[in-house]
Amino acid sequence: MVRHANSLRSTPGQAAERPTRATPDDAFNRARELWLAGERIHLASLAEELNIGRATLFRWVGNKNLLLGEILWSLYMPIREYAREQTPGQGIDYIAGVYHRINSILLNDKALRRFISQDPEYALRILTSASSTLHNRVVQANTRMLWEQIDAGHLPKPSMKVESLSYFMVRLAESCLYSDVISGRAPRQEELEDACRAVRILLGGTAD
C-alpha cells in the first residue's frame, strides 16, 4: 500500500500553520495503518492519539467491528478492480478468472493471514459472519458482476437466483481461504483450484 502525507512547510517570514483538528479520514487512515502493521486496534487509544473524544470517534467510525469491516473493504476493492482489469474474456471464463485472481491474492496476503492468526475466531466473525461488512459487500459485488454478464448476453441466466449463486460462490471461497480456522486445515492453492472448478460448474460450464 502507498501512503500519501501532506507535510506542512513554512515560507521564510511566515509562521508555520497550526495543525488542523483530526478528521474522520484521519481516524480511518490511522486505523488502517495500524491494521496493516499487524497492531491491534483499540478505539480508546486511537481517540487519545488523535486528541478527540471517544464519543466523537464512535460517531465517525462506529464500533470496532464496523471499522475493521471498512478497513478490509478498502483493501479488498483495489484487488477486485485489479482482477477485473487483468482478466480477459467474457461469460464463464471471465467470472471464473476474476474469482481465481482475487482469491489467489487473498490466499497469500500476509496482513490477512496475520490478522487471522492473532485471534482466529474473532477474525472469522469479522470476515464471514452474516453481519460482516466484507462478506455482504463481496456478495453484492459478485451479484453485480454476474448480472453484467447476463445482461450482456455472455452468461445464461442461472436456474437459481443470481443473489444465491453469488452467495454460494463467496462461501466456497471463504471455506478455502479460512480453512485453518473452519476445519483445522492449512489453506492450500490446490483447494482453491477445486473451488474455481466448482464455480465454473455452478455457472453452467465444465470443470476444465
Short description:
This is Transcriptional regulator. By secondary structure, this protein is mainly α.
Overall mean pLDDT stands at 90
pLDDT < 50 runs, ≥5 residues: 1-18
- Total beta strand runs: 0
**How many strands, which pairing sense, and closed or not: the largest β-sheet?**
none
For the record, the CATH class of the largest domain is Mainly Alpha
Radius of gyration: 20 Å
The helix fraction, in percent, is 55-70%
The CATH topology of the largest domain comes to: Tetracycline Repressor, domain 2
How many H/I helices?
A: 11
Q: How much beta, percentage-wise?
A: under 5%
Number of domains: 2
Order of helices and strands: HHHHHHHHHHH
Shape summary: elongated
Tell me the CATH architecture of the largest domain: Orthogonal Bundle
Overall SS class: mainly alpha
Distance from first to last alpha carbon: 35 Å
Describe it.
The protein has 208 residues and is mainly alpha-helical. It folds into 2 domains: 24-61; 72-202, Tetracycline Repressor, domain 2 (Orthogonal Bundle). The protein contains 11 helices and no strands. Helix 5 (91-107) packs antiparallel against helix 11. The radius of gyration is 20 Å and the shape is elongated.
